Amino acid sequence: MDLAFTPEELAFRDEIRTWVHANLPKHISDKVHAAQRLTRDDMQTWAKILGKKGWLGYGWPQQFGGPGWNAVQKHLFEEECALAGAPRVVPFGPVMVAPVIMAFGNAEQQQRFLPGIASGEVWWSQGYSEPGSGSDLASLKTRAERKGDKYIVNGQKTWTTLGQYGEWIFCLVRTSTEGKPQTGISFLLIDMKSPGVTVRPIKLLDGECEVNEVWFDNVEVPAENLIGEENKGWTYAKHLLSHERTNIADVNRAKRELERLKRIAKTEGVLEDFRFRDEIAKLEVDIVALEMLVLRVLSAEKSGKNSLDIAGLLKIRGSEIQQRYTELMMQAAGPFSLPFIFEAMEAGWQGNFPGGVVANAPLASNYFNMRKTTIYGGSNEVQRNIVSQTVLG
Amino acid sequence: MDFDFSEDQEQLRDAVRKWVDKGYDFERRRAIVNAGGFDRAAYNELAELGLAGLYVSEEHGGLGMGPVEAMVVMEELGRGIVLEPLAQTLIASAVLQTHAPAALQSAWLPRIAGGEAIVVLAHQERGARHHLNRCQAAAKEAGGQWTVSGTKSIVPVGDQADAFIVPALAGGQMALFLVERGAAGVKAEGYLTQDGARAAEVSFANSPAQLITKNGQTALEEAADIGSACVCAEGVGVMDKTLAITAEYMNTRKQFGVPIATFQALRHRIADMKMQLELARSMSYYASLKLKTPESERRQAIARARYQLGNAMRFVGQSAVQLHGGIGVTDEYIVSHYFKKLTQLEMTFGDTLHHLGEVSNRMQDTAGVFA
Predict the structure, then answer these.
(1) What pLDDT score was predicted for residue A242?
(2) A220 and A269 in one domain?
(3) In angstroms, what CA-CA distances link A275 with A287, A333, A360, B312?
């Protein structure tokens, strides 16, 4: 039992820190620290910088061109990026579909798709949820019918995050209606430029178009884009879920945002108000406890001794904390979080924000936006079902 | 970064668990409560396992172990809601070993390690609540002999212990003294506490005392933090067992023709209990692993851990009773005793609001496990 990182791990962290500070463009980190709107270009710029260094696929093994880092090193990398104000790596390519292609794709697919993901050139989207299939994902209906060397895809996906930028989309599609719903699902990669693909942004409660509906109308997909075997897609998707473990807690970002919350509270004059200050103190404890939970998982992964089946707990707690810090930031600004001036959330806006503190402009929108975190990725209620299974069987 | 236990630590855990399972079942515990809440024979069995000397150096006949081993032991004692106050022994031996003059150490540490002497901290005063710097008891020195006067409340096994570690003001400064229970002017009135353990109101009237340290505030804070780390570890053990008892009950108890474990409202409550347990376990590790860090870092870590643990213990205890239904509020069934233990632990060495205040006062711009 030891709470300290090893000298090697600390040296690794310093190396990452130095590199991130030298390579992360300031105009991007400034936006992240102020929670201003990021453009596609901002996200892509950082992805390509990481890609050039070979770190966009920072969780990848060396045989696929990744750095081959262990769990602790991955965590330290994520932490340094988060604290420095780097945009989050858009996960759909490097974190979500790439591990599936590595584990279940054939050599040809690996050579074809992985380089574009590793470099950040190709923007991937995720096609899982459907209007009728949210928590009950296995009930999905988007149909892929095999016709010769092609699949003909018909149906609709929804909540496709940043799908408006997507060039490729990995989809769960129904290839069979026999047996249990889970056994008739396949994992298909689809070029979003294919005829018959339509993307329509969905405006969310904060005014942003972060997610999309994606329609497939007789879309022809070459059969060679099928990953693994037909009707085994559910298994592959579950493999993918098991791949994001500690980073679903997003504790590193929470640490950065806790600092921002304290800055906002200071500016707004509520940091010395006991009632408000104690709420921040509670959040601070929540974040430290979450970090300890994450470190325990990392230690278990590193040593392979005591595996901890607590991914559900990480998701629940991490998402609750994300909601809490945005809530407290909004409450700190109080009425000055209320003016809804869309342009004031952009970097470099020159107008006069009511009250004079433009940093307050995105706080309510961020709060509204974060309601998604307890809904997506398996709602927290579904997570509680899973957790209860570990206790009750 | 390593949260695995060593082989020795696992063996220690197994030994204590075996004793709790075989030697300290619910019937024995109930008999001890009925007989006054403390059993010297049971305490001696802990001493025979070496646990009374866990913190005592090998030179003085102990095991010379550290906070992680203490944590392992306290977790296991928590699982059996053991009444005998081993945490007090850990506190007393640490205080004496760190602060007492050599003669006092040689006189007491071997006897503590062997179980012949029980020494407990007698610090709680009516007017102090959870503030360690508030003290009314006073000490005087005359002709090279110290005497202590004052009253201390809720002293664990206060009418059974052999000696007390007593904070008292000496020339306006808090100092720590060792006072034997048999000394002149010492009066101890024992009673049961809510968890079934024993405590006493202990008063001192010009009682002969031996000076441990004039640096009493620092030493008392250390003692309280060791006690808090014990509370965390013990709480984790109690909660771990509480969750297991509740899960078993839910899988057995039938209503509407099915086990109540099938009802989602109840399943979600148990998922929330599991959450609190794992956060608490994480923070218990944190507390014990920070116990040897510099004072401000240690005090902050302990306060954070106790805030987390306090909420967790209350939630897990209340939920366990609720999920059991009527049987949960009976004296006959085991779970109410776990609930009462968790309730009492929350108020030992500072309650949750007190520790929240400490966290709040100590807040810096940045925060995390390492800051």
Answers:
(1) 64
(2) no
(3) 19, 15, 21, 21
Most A CBs within 10 Å: which of B1, B268, B285, B297, as the mutation test of the A interface?
A: B1
Interchain CB contacts (distance < 8 Å): A and B: 145
pLDDT at residue B264 greater than cutoff 90: yes
Give chain B positions within 8 Å (CB) of A285: 304, 307-308, 356, 359
Pair B310, B342: CB distance under 8 Å: no
Q: Measured between CB atoms, which of B273, B282, B368 is closest to A293?
A: B282
Let me know if residue B370 belongs to a domain.
Answer: no
Give how far B154 is from chain A: nearest CA, Å: 29
Same domain for A204 and A276, yes or no, is no
Is B356 in the same domain as B245?
A: yes
Residues A384 and A257 in one domain: yes
Cβ contacts of A70 on chain B, cutoff 8 Å? none
Measured in angstroms, the CA of B4 and the nearest CA of chain A are apart by: 6
Of the three residues A184, A201, A231, the one that is the final residue of a domain is A231
Q: Residue A294: inside a domain, yes or no?
A: yes
The answer to whether B308 contacts chain A (CB < 8 Å) is yes
Is the per-residue pLDDT at A303 higher than 90?
Answer: no
Identity of the amino acid at B257:
G
Plot region of A226 (φ>0 → left; ψ -120 to 50 → alpha; else → beta): beta
pLDDT band at A247 (very low <50, low <70, confident <90, very high): confident
Considering the domain architecture, whether residues B225 and B357 belong to the same structural domain is answered as yes
Query: Does position B173 have pLDDT exceeding 70, yes or no?
Result: yes
Of the candidates B68, B247, B308, which has its C-beta nearest A392's C-beta? B247
CB spacing of B1 vs A306 below 8 angstroms:
no
Last residue of a domain, one of A177, A201, A231: A231
Are residues A303 and B2, on separate chains, in Cβ contact within 8 Å?
yes
Which is it for the CA torsion A106, A110, A111, A116, positive or negative? positive
B275 pLDDT more than 80: yes
pLDDT digits (tens, 9 = 90+) for B225-236: 999 999 999 999
Most distant CA pair in chain B: distance in Å?
Answer: 79
- The partner residue sitting opposite B4, judged by closest CB among A281, A306, A381, is A306
Measured between CA atoms, how close is B246 to chain A, in angstroms? 9
Radius of gyration over every alpha carbon of chain B, rounded to an integer in angstroms? 21
Pairwise CA distance, residues A355 & B88, whole Å: 56
Domain that holds residue B16: 7-114
Are A195 and A306 contained in the same domain?
no
A 10 A CB-CB count for B15 gives 15
Q: Which domain holds residue A226?
A: 124-231
Instruction: Please check whether residues B18 and B149 belong to one and the same domain.
Output: no
What ipTM goes with this model?
Answer: 0.97
Q: How many CA atoms lie within 13 A of B137 on its CB side?
A: 34
A243: confidence class by pLDDT, cuts 50, 70, 90: low
- What's this model's pTM, rounded to 2 decimal places? 0.96
pLDDT of residue B124: 98
Q: Provide mean pLDDT across the span A242-258.
A: 83
Q: Is residue B1 part of a domain?
A: no
Co-location of A276 and A177 in the same domain: no
- Min Cα separation A173/chain B (Å): 30
Q: Look at chain A and report how many structural domains it folds into.
A: 3
Please check whether residue B144 is in contact with residue B152, taking contact to mean a CB–CB distance below 8 angstroms: no
Nearest CA distance, A258 vs chain B (angstrom)? 8
Among A230-239, A283-292, B25-34, B145-154, whose mean pLDDT is lowest?
A230-239
Contact check, Cβ <8 Å, A5/B366: no
Q: How many CB atoms lie within 10 A of CB B354?
A: 17
**Does residue A109 sit within a domain?**
no
Express each pLDDT in A310-341 by its tens digit.
889 999 999 999 999 999 999 999 999 999 99
SS3 A136: coil
